[in-house]
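Supplementary Methods. Inverse-folding protocol.

Structures were first reduced to a discrete structure-token string of length 325. This string, shown here, constituted the complete conditioning input.
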């Protein structure tokens, strides 16, 4: 007669009792609304992408996905909130690369890899270099020539210290060997108003902030910050095509879970997000705002991309001179 291993039986029963709820939670995910945290105010590029993404994921995954804006500190406040959230799949963030946030806030207790589970890239875009319509330069070569002849004369309206447009402008100054006088505003909207009025003459902006102003003639587009032109922003040349080789500055937004989120949940969200954002309607909505829906091939591929980009972003922040506490 086979001997009974009481320890093995007890362990088996213990495993059933305590693992079943966890397995059940994963298999039924999601069964309640999901919060999508975005670290920027309403009306900007990140907020726009977050709302399109939330709608598409909701359709694919079968529950409501609500956008919650937690602006401040260049996305750092939202990043900290998500890092500390329960890793159950019901709190997710849409953010730019965390390496940029960490470079801007070196004292912040943020582990760019250890605190998050990357899900997928969602969208990428180029910024637009815009000028007041009365400015005496109509293309990039003329802008550079004028800047070199008149260092510090051009007032550049920035959407905030350490913002992506601020970093793009700082990198431009370094590559083109020019100098602007940069004025910091609380967001792209106020920066655009200042440039339109003529109080400032130049701005680097995400497309959703300025597309309507360019179409109305309130601002004139000089060039894109990407090296090449973009199908999402037809009619505006890239920086390299306009005479500035070696300059390329783009932005991207991706989805992140808190560390510890189960792989099964991460993969389910990856499928929902990539499938949803591949729909023609989502692509068209992003294209109208000058952005492209660009998904990662897998969560692992997205993580590898973030690791490769981290030193590049850190160097751009160093060049910008942005010092934030």
């Amino acid at each position: 007669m086979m001997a009974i291993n009481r320890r093995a039986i007890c362990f088996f029963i213990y495993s059933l009792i305590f693992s079943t709820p966890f397995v059940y939670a994963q298999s039924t995910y999601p069964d309640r609304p999901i919060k999508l945290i975005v670290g920027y105010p309403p009306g900007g590029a990140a907020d726009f992408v977050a709302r399109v993404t939330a709608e598409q994921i909701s359709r694919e995954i079968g529950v409501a996905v609500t956008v919650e804006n937690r602006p401040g500190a260049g996305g750092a406040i939202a990043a900290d909130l998500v890092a500390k959230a329960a890793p159950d799949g019901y709190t997710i963030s849409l953010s730019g690369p965390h390496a940029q946030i960490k470079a801007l806030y070196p004292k912040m207790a943020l582990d760019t890899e250890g605190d998050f589970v990357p899900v997928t890239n969602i969208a990428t875009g180029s910024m637009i270099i815009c000028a007041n319509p009365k400015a005496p330069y109509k293309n990039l070569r003329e802008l550079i020539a004028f800047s070199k002849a008149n260092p510090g004369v051009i007032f550049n309206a920035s959407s905030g210290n350490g913002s992506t447009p601020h970093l793009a402008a700082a990198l431009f100054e370094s590559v083109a060997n020019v100098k602007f006088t940069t004025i910091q505003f609380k967001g792209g909207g106020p920066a655009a108003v200042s440039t339109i009025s003529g109080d400032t003459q130049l701005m680097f902006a995400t497309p959703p902030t300025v597309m309507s102003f360019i179409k109305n003639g309130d601002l004139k587009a000089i060039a894109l910050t990407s090296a090449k032109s973009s199908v999402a922003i037809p009619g505006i040349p890239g920086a390299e095509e306009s005479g500035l080789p070696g300059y390329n500055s783009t932005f991207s937004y991706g989805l992140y879970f808190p560390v510890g989120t189960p792989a099964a949940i991460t993969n389910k969200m990856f499928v929902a997000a990539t499938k949803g954002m591949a729909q023609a309607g989502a692509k068209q909505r992003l294209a109208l705002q000058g952005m492209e829906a660009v998904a990662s091939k897998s969560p692992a591929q997205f993580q590898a991309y973030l690791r490769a980009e981290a030193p590049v972003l850190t160097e751009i922040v160093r060049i910008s001179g942005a010092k934030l506490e």
